[in-house]
């Protein structure tokens, strides 16, 4: 147990029931437990983690009264309901811990610190009400923060969203002058009603800063974004990415992984396979999915395609595809419902990753030195895509049309431009490995974070 003088520590962590938020928090919890801290992992009933995969952690279910099929008007309503429902049980638990300290001996007293992601904002509010320090783990890129933070200003100035005749929202290629190289079309909430946009931003962008931030990124990768965050909040910001590589952990996936795809990859030539996975939340219509399938088939490259049940609107799996196309695809590819992504990306047969550009997927691809084909959908994904293609130059943005897809796959896997992307991806991979090694920026930041907790 972590002790400082005669003090003992109880860290209470909570993350939203989204794959991209829960996984980094579980990695962080495992790391902090390895440093001797007592860990309580509070979680919603929806997408609850498996305690058997995380020995040593104490798990606290929070009654959320939600279901995976609940009908919400939008992300804002979902988040508000989640926070409203989880808050009472979380607060009750913390009050119980505090009350138990009153009769504890000096050697048994625990100092409590709350660590939460920005979507579980109730936790910071409860901590403030109880006089406890709180720390926010941000699981998006640092570059996304200035992009979302500027939207209220752009709305006030009439610069967002960009509208054409009949108030039609335009897919504007113009660069936002304060956010180079971000274009207006890369900003989140592009087609969301203004009132709903402002309400959601006010929920997830904290006005009153926490005691500190953890950011799942690297100093070398996003210096401008990190500087913006530090200047804005004036509290410690620890860049600790990639959290999935700081300590060995069991799988944190919400979905059952089909590991048979690894033996299929073993039979493929080095760097010949395009791996396709659009994450755990995206929904794609039948037309776009069919274009994806034809693009894969026509590229004549081996592929591993994750078609998550429910990915394609109105269908369970890939039964919408014509039988002759399916037969053609089976000759050179494999379709699975879910894959062990980190293991797939580490496989020598994989030469490109066609992704939605969620930040976890981006970090995992960077760590393995795999170039990306970028098909973003919402929120931070479009910003990540822009940086991957225009700044870091290890990705190419995909247009969901079969000819464009075919060209993009060949460009990444067999073209000269793909070779150049691969070289840049390897250079970033080497820097990432340095960052998490002893004396590297992320390693030092994690050690400094442990010291910071002990100083509270």
From TrEMBL:
Keyword Transferase: yes
Cross-referenced CDD domains: GT1_Gtf-like (cd03784)
Protein origin, superkingdom: Eukaryota
InterPro entries, per the entry: UDP_glucos_trans
Pfam families: UDPGT
Keywords: Transferase
Gene Ontology terms for molecular function: quercetin 3-O-glucosyltransferase activity; quercetin 7-O-glucosyltransferase activity
Family (UniProt): Belongs to the UDP-glycosyltransferase family.
PANTHER family, per the entry: GLUCOSYL/GLUCURONOSYL TRANSFERASES, UDP-GLYCOSYLTRANSFERASE 76F1-RELATED
The name this protein goes by in its record: Glycosyltransferase
Species name: Mikania micrantha
Lineage, broadest ranks: Eukaryota, Viridiplantae, Streptophyta, Embryophyta, Tracheophyta
């Amino acid at each position: 147990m972590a002790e400082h003088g005669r003090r003992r520590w109880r860290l209470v962590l909570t993350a939203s029931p989204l794959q991209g938020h829960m996984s980094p928090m579980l990695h962080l919890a495992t790391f902090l437990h390895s440093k001797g801290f007592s860990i309580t992992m509070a979680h919603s009933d929806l997408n609850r983690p498996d305690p058997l995969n995380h020995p040593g952690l104490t798990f606290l279910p929070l009654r959320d009264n939600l279901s995976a099929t609940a009908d919400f008007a939008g992300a804002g309503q979902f988040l508000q309901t989640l926070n409203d429902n989880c808050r009472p049980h979380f607060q009750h638990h913390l009050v119980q811990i505090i009350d138990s300290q009153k009769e504890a001996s000096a050697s048994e007293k625990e100092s409590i610190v709350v660590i939460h992601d920005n979507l579980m904002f109730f936790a910071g509010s409860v901590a403030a009400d109880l006089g406890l320090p709180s720390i926010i783990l941000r699981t998006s890129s640092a570059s996304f923060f200035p992009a979302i933070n500027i939207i209220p200003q752009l709305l006030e100035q009439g610069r967002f969203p960009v509208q054409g005749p009949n108030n039609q929202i335009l897919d504007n290629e113009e660069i936002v002058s304060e956010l180079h190289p971000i274009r207006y079309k890369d900003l989140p909430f592009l087609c969301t009603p203004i009132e709903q946009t402002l309400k959601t931003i006010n929920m997830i962008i904290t006005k009153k800063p926490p005691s500190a931030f953890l950011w799942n990124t690297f100093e070398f990768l996003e210096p401008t974004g990190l500087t913006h965050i530090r200047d804005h909040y004036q509290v410690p910001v620890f860049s600790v990415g990639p959290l999935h590589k700081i300590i060995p952990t069991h799988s944190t996936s919400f979905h059952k992984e089909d590991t048979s795809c690894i033996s299929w990859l073993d039979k493929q030539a080095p760097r010949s396979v395009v791996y396709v996975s659009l994450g755990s939340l995206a929904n794609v219509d039948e037309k776009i999915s069919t274009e994806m399938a034809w693009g894969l088939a026509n590229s004549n490259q081996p592929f591993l395609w994750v078609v998550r049940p429910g990915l394609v609107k109105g269908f369970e799996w890939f039964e919408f595809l014509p039988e002759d196309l399916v037969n053609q695809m089976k000759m050179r590819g494999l379709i699975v419902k879910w894959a062990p992504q980190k293991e797939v990306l580490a496989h020598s047969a994989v030469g490109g990753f066609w992704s939605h550009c969620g930040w976890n997927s981006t970090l995992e691809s960077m760590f393995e030195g795999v170039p990306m084909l970028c098909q973003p959908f919402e929120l931070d994904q479009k910003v990540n895509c822009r940086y991957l293609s225009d700044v870091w130059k290890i990705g190419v943005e995909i247009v969901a049309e079969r000819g464009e897809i075919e060209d993009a796959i060949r460009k990444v896997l067999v073209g000269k431009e793909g070779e150049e992307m691969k070289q840049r991806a390897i250079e970033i991979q080497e820097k990432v490995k340095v960052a998490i090694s002893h004396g590297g920026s992320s390693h030092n930041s994690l050690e400094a974070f442990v010291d910071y907790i002990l100083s509270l």
